[in-house]
Amino acid sequence: MPTSSIHTLAVHAGERAAKPDFTPVATPIHPSSSYIYEDMEALDAAFSGAHDGPMYTRYGNPTVTALETAVAALEGGEAALAYSSGMAAIHGALLAAGARAGATVVAAQDVYGATYALLTRLLASQGVTARFVDAADPDAVGAALAAAPSPAALIVETISNPLLKVADLPRLAEQAHGVGAALIVDNTFATPYLCRPLALGADYVVHSATKYLGGHGDVLGGAVVASAARRRELNEINKLLGANLGPQEAWLVLRGIKTLPLRVQRQCENAVRVAAWLAEQPQVSRVNFPGLPDHPQHALASRLFDRGLYGAMISFDLADGDRARVFRFMEALRLVLPATTLGDVYSLALYPAMSSHRALAPELRRAIGIGDGLVRLSVGIEDPADIIADLAQALAR
After folding, report:
1. Which single residue of 96, 117, 123, 369 has CA 20 to 30 Å from 43?
2. May I ask the CATH architecture of the domain 61-257?
């Protein structure tokens, strides 16, 4: 560097060193907001899309790209785009699928509450019509799609939040494609360890990376997996939305993914024991868990899900449950954490009427089966006997 000025040295010394002849074992974190090229033609090619190198982090980042590569591989997809949150990912997928003025989106009636609010508030204000249907009723889905003017998308969850219904993805894909609509599948609850919706006909697979992918309650993020062509469209939209995932957050999710199969295997095995125990408790009137033989979609889940596992999410109704009774139960928990998330290594309990589905009117919640006594449980990796013991003492109190 041709200077001895401390002012210039402080800015430039040590930066932009020559490329090393080694490769780090762990993916580096690239916090740079922009990138330089010695060859301006290469920079121009990056801006045009002819070259996939980064030039500005809103357009792409090496650490984020590493995460996208990993998520796409896990889901068996061609490409993925990372987002700053799961809701940003859902929004991006809907826009890419054609959710615009005059279009209709058909959605599962018990979809995540924020997804419901996105459809009925923000997108509705922009001229999108939302129709909600029981995704477990193929005749109702077919009728809704057939009656929908300009159907753009059918959006469902592999395992629904919070009623744990299982979507017949191959049939839903056939129905959506039959009317020219895309199938968007939120695979957050199932994870690619249990199910790969793209292989079953889905066009877009969405994840809240905050949950099982990250897995440790320390990061917010989302992702959409799709074909390479659809990924390009998602990215063009996101250049304008600006819902980018930061490199620090991308690195945390990527680190979490390393143990995803180990965590999910343990969580699913724990959930089987916890659900079976809950089903025997007199203080519990109903348990929703696809792994129980009396679950309406148990046989379907057995066909769709790999490894004989059924997820690690459970919901259950307290007998004669109401807000006050649920609050007492939640406050009595000592090991299980009453937190507004899921998929962590910790076991977590949530009251849908208060949090995840607060956006739904009480009468609508009850109509679709989300009663005032419903509790959602995300089973963690602790000793299952300890989880059960904590639930037992809280139910007793």
Report:
1. 96
2. 3-Layer(aba) Sandwich (3.40)
Amino acid at site 384 = P
Considering the entire predicted model, what is its pTM? 0.94
User: Catalytic positions, please?
Assistant: 58, 112, 186, 211
Amino acid letter for position 221:
G
* CATH code, residues 260-396: 3.90.1150.10
Q: Cis ω on the peptide bond leading into residue 338 (within 30° of 0)?
A: no
User: 126 is written with which tokens?
Assistant: 């922009």
Integer Cα distance of 106 and 265 in angstroms: 33
Q: How many residues does the chain have?
A: 397
Q: Where do you find CATH 3.90.1150.10 in the chain?
A: 260-396
pLDDT digits (tens, 9 = 90+) for 160-218: 999 999 999 999 999 999 999 999 999 999 999 999 999 999 999 999 999 999 999 99
Omega before 162 within 30 of 0, i.e. cis: yes
Convert 193-218 to b/e letters by CB count within 10 Å (16 or more is b). bbbbbbebbbbbbbbbbbbbbbbebe
